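Go through this:
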Amino acid sequence: MTAASELRQIGIFLFPGVEELDAVGPWEVLGYWTRFFPEDGYTVATFSPDGGRVECAKGLVIEAEYSFADAPEWEVLLHPGGDGTRTMLEDEARLDWVREQRESVPLMTSVCTGALVYAAAGLLRGRPATTYRPSLGRLAELDPSIEVRPDDRFVDDGDVITSAGVSAGIDMALYLVSRLSSPERAAEVKEGIQYAPRPPV
């Protein structure tokens, strides 16, 4: 059993207007993994600029566990998308914060339009990446050097992983479990959360 103080930290960033499933989908995967397989040595938490209550894009309110001021050192940072990312693209203070995270966090990941924030901050320069399908053109506009992958569910470029829109965050999170632990563990988590999509339409 890994001691709590030795657990590697995965942080899911919350902000006003975050798309619910962008954050909660990966949380379900990562929360199940870290709760039921603590021997793998990871834990997951949410954080926001000020901590406390965050209202999401469709009205769900989530209580962030940490603020910027008291957050632990992240091993993995997950930046969701949502309407709240629109203002971030021209918010130099927020983009500087993203750049600072790039300097200290070994693995930066995004869901949906979180990739646009990474692009605006310069994190995706010369890299392959993807995002929410209607925002693929905007991704290319923000940084023409990006190799946009329109058909990929997620793109692993070593220390940066981007994923497509909304529900794609679940697939990316399962991939994270596979990468950080093993494919066998990811299969156990997938079975545990009964993730076997069979859309009716």
Remarks:
- The longest helix spans residues 20-36.
